[in-house]
Design brief:
With 228 residues, the chain is of the alpha/beta class. It has helices at 35-41, 64-73, 86-90, 94-105, 111-115, 117-128, 139-147, 158-170, 188-205; strands spanning 5-12, 15-22, 25-32, 47-50, 134-136, 211-219, 222-227.
């Protein structure tokens, strides 16, 4: 493998799906059960964009990154989910987590949001133990950055899928048809999200990426931002 390698990673039913770019062009798509399992093979990537929160809020009102991402996305703002405080996600039992959330932020959290805790803490553990440049991204923020205006359709709509494929292709990221292998069986929106995350990772590697907020917010000594 040669050239500037970066990776975009998105959670999927199978674990994680990663799109690897070389010099800004598609190189490979991989499915891995764990994030360290994927990055063990790609230890020389210059940057990794992960569609998962990195840096949890300690209390209300939450992270500036999420609020600024909503503003940036405009009509697609609903794709940004508010991140519960750390104390909520550290609770393994959903019912108890709901009670903690009600106390801290005035409302409960869904089982779907609570279920993300496993991947959130997997990322957190990995980031704390690696020298790789791993940063939080949000695919819809990445697509908005490519398009320079809010996208017209939801990502799971047919026109939304085509809209996002066209944007990736315009940036030089063309996914093979068929893709083949295990990655070819991953849900379409997860694969496109990983490709958008890779686009952001390539901008990070070239030091041309933007962040929301800018500069990043500091939470518990950690820089917290969504990059694109």
């Amino acid at each position: 493998m040669t050239g500037r390698l970066v990776a975009g990673v998105d959670g999927c039913r199978e674990g994680w799906v990663a799109v690897v770019l070389s010099e800004g062009r598609f190189h490979e798509a991989i499915v891995a059960r764990t994030l360290p399992g994927f990055l063990h093979e790609y230890r020389n990537v210059r940057a990794v964009g992960v569609d998962m929160p990195i840096g949890l809020p300690l209390s209300t009102p939450g992270r500036r990154a999420d609020g600024e991402a909503k503003t940036f996305l405009g009509t697609r703002a609903k794709s940004v989910f508010p991140i519960p405080p750390r104390e909520v996600l550290e609770e393994e039992d959903h019912n108890r987590a709901v009670k903690i959330a009600q106390r801290l932020i005035g409302h409960g959290i869904s089982q779907q949001t609570h279920a993300l805790r496993k991947k959130i803490f997997e990322i957190e553990d990995f980031v704390s133990g690696t020298r790789l440049d791993v940063r939080e991204v949000h695919p819809e923020v990445s697509f908005r950055g490519m398009n320079e205006e809010p996208l017209g359709f939801p990502k799971r709509a047919w026109d939304g899928l085509l809209e996002r494929k066209r944007l990736l292709a315009r940036e030089g990221i063309k996914l093979p048809e068929p893709l083949g292998g295990e990655a070819g069986r991953v849900q379409t929106d997860d694969l496109l999200d990983a490709a958008a995350a890779a686009w952001s990772a390539d901008r990070i590697a070239r030091d041309t990426a933007c962040s929301l907020p800018s500069p990043p917010e500091i939470i518990a000594g950690q820089k917290v931002a969504i990059w694109y």
